[in-house]
Amino acid sequence: MKKLTLIIIGLLCHTMISSCKKETEKQINPEQIVKKTSAIALVSWETVIPTSSFSSFSTYWNNLYPWGSDHNGTARMRTQNIAVSAGVLTFTSAPTSGVGNSVKDPYLPIHYYSGAVHAKAIPIVNDAYPKWRFSAEVQSASQVGTWPAWWITGADSWPPESDIMEFKGSTTTWTNTYKNPSGGWSSQGHVISSPGNWHTYTAYLTKLNATDVTIEYWIDGTLKATHTGANFVGKRFNIILNYQMEGSSGSPGPTGTTYMKVRNVHVQKSATL
After folding, report:
1. What is the 3-state secondary structure (H, E, C) of 157-188?
2. Which of 83, 121, 228, 268 has the fewest CB atoms within 10 Å around its CB?
3. Which residues belong to any copy of the GH16 domain (predicted)?
């Protein structure tokens, strides 16, 4: 009986040791570690425009709009109305008169000189890079007649367009996507507490299918809206920051000098979803 007991105890110990060995092997399986490491590498971002880009302005940015000095408001953009200091890009809008009308539809009279810039990088959402991230910190004017914006638009044709931040004469910023699947705008307004303080405005564009993208709009780290952008895939985009005046932001605009400030613009792309 004593011998039988010893045999049973020995079998139990062998079973316990085998079980512990298998559990340990399961926990440190090298193949699983390799797979996890590979997955982390696959979702990493590649920087297209670094947060320090304004300190090397001519490397990453061009002055004015891609099409020139005028757009759809009453401000004409000039090199003299932008400046960079300590990594911060400042747009200065100042009243003017006797300049004539804008050369762009709706051909409004020019009431201000202001500033605009566009990136030298031209993003394309495609199979090679199906996911893009656009982020910037902005101090924005918000009184009637001020129209600051941070946006991307078709470089070769319009639409499409994605407005990551657009203030139109109030403390509400707008996230807009054109063209949505129905062929028009998707728009949401978001009230910002103290727009003149630094806030972060971010958009993620993710390839949805052969033609469309999903766009997530984030403000200060919070998801605010999700849109579908039709016919975005394969299109070249201009990246634009500008301080336009009046037009859709109302009139009359400010009688004195006002400012829009931007820092830490960061554009990234990912080879995987």
Report:
1. CCCCEEEEEEECCCCEEEEEEECCCCCCCEEE
2. 83
3. 43-270
Cα–Cα distance measured from residue 222 to residue 139, given in angstroms and rounded to the nearest whole number: 18
Local structure of residue 106 (DSSP, 8 states): T
Query: For 19-72, how does the pLDDT look when each residue is reduced to its tens digit (9 = 90+)?
Result: 433 433 344 354 444 343 344 445 599 999 999 999 999 999 999 999 999 999
> Model-level pTM?
0.85
In angstroms, rounded to a whole number, what is the distance separating the alpha carbons of residues 62 and 81?
Answer: 14
Residues with active-site annotation: 161, 166
Separation between Cα atoms, residue 42 and residue 84, nearest integer Å: 35
Nearest Cα to Cα of residue 267 among 188, 221, 205, 182: 205
Query: Which amino acid, one-letter code, is at 226?
Result: T
Q: What is the DSSP letter of 97?
A: -
Residue located via tokens 């307004």: 189
Phi, psi at 135, each rounded to 5°: -140, 145
Q: Which two tokens stand for residue 208?
A: 């949805």
Reported as type and span, the H/E element at residue 39 is helix 30-42
> Top-level CATH class of 46-270?
mainly beta
What does DSSP say about strands 75-77 and 112-114: parallel, antiparallel, or unpaired? parallel
Residue 193 half-sphere exposure, CB side, CA atoms within 13 Å? 1
